[in-house]
Amino acid sequence: MAILMGVDGGGTKTFTVISDEYGNLLGSGISGCGNHQVNGIEQTLTNIHESIESALSGAKLKKGDIDFVQFGLAGADREKDFKILRPALGSLSFPTWDVVCDTMEGLRTGSPTNTGVVLVCGTGTNAAGRNKAGKVIQTGGFGYLYGDFAGGSQMAVETFRAAVRSWEKREQPSILVKEVPAFFNFSTMEELINSFLDTEVYEVPSELTEVLHKAADEGDPASIKILMETGRELGLAANSVIERLGDLDGIIPIVLTGSVLQKGRNKYLLDSIEKTISNINPDIKLCIPDMEPVYGSILLAMDHLDIVASIDVYKKFESYGGYKKWTRV
Questions:
Q1: In the prediction, which pLDDT does 11 show?
Q2: Rounded to whole angstroms, how far apart are CA atoms 297 and 322?
Q3: What pLDDT does 328 receive?
Q4: 226 and 306 housed in the same domain
Q5: Arithmetic mean of pLDDT, 24-52
Q6: What confidence tens digit (pLDDT) does each residue in 43-72 have?
Q7: Where are the alpha helices (DSSP H) in 69-151?
Q8: What is d(CA 305, CA 207) in angstroms, rounded to the nearest whole number?
Q9: How many domains is the chain built from?
Q10: Both 112 and 52 in a single domain?
């Protein structure tokens, strides 16, 4: 029976799980940031190692018991990144392993063939795809200056801006004028703006997108506009991947990952994504995975060992939930 390890490294946490080939969860571990672009390679490797050791301890296993390790790491974007990551991960002394960008984890959670397009919309945004020949293409993921316009951080800024502009009557009336101050525990926009300017606040938390979703659900035109524009940007990124990738036959899966898409599931956002893509590529199917990205790494590990994941395995992975369910933070 094969024993598999998946390591999901992001900007805030590294989550490791160990599973057998039947999808039974044997152990898990969590540590800090797993993105070398954020933390530097030394601290990132320390966090990855800590997460792995915690999972091994919980499973009562040793490194030699693991048949394959799949790393899915944020920041593994370009060959320059892999030249940093491969030697560092090799020092962990696993005999068989692979590393991919965390976007490929996401793709695998929603595509049994590991082909198609994955759109990421969490704090930031990214788009990538893989065809049947194994070619991988990435569009975006490097911030606003390099063409991106989506992600929770950007959406939060647009939400705040919309509230300000509506309050100043530069834009149409919006319930954001009431909801945004309330989010920050102020009674009015005037109080909020004066306080932020006095204390030199020029950033807002990505959690402000929760206000955006709620306002859109209540029919607020300004909020709906922001979500539709975000959906259009994500759709354009998907079309870019499809055109640049090529060799995608039949119905193309568009896997939607990240908290804004997987947890928010806003109809205006999703409809805008689908409309933008299908206008150029009509043979698509949107898919929002119900499993955490780390299980995409386990599925990729199974692929490496030619293990076919059964429907039962998928159901188990979907039932496990996220790292908070399995590990004390």
A1: 83
A2: 14
A3: 37
A4: no
A5: 95
A6: 999 999 999 999 999 999 999 999 999 999
A7: 79-90, 102-110
A8: 40
A9: 2
A10: no
Which structural domain range is residue 177 located in?
A: 106-289
d(CA 271, CA 268): 5
Does 279 lie in the same domain as 303? no
- Position of tokens 């705040």? 160
Q: What digits encode the pLDDT tens for the residues 87-127?
A: 999 999 999 999 999 999 999 999 999 999 999 998 889 99
Please check whether residues 262 and 182 belong to one and the same domain: yes
Residue 134: CB partners within 8 Å, gap ≥ 6? none
The dihedral formed by the CA atoms of 50, 26, 120 and 238, expressed in degrees to the nearest 10? 130
**Joined tokens for residue 87:** 């030697």
Same domain? For 59 and 152 the reply is no
Residue 318 belongs to domain with CATH number: 3.30.420.40
Same-domain pairing of 277 and 295: no
The single residue listed with the structure tokens 């990505």 is 206
Beta strands in 36-115 (DSSP E): 68-73, 97-101
Let me know whether 163 and 207 are in one domain.
yes
**What are the E-state strand segments in the chain?**
3-9, 14-20, 25-31, 68-73, 97-101, 116-121, 125-130, 136-139, 252-257, 284-287
Cα–Cα dist 104/300, whole Å: 9
Task: Tell me how long the chain is.
Answer: 329
| Residue 190 and residue 253 in one domain | yes
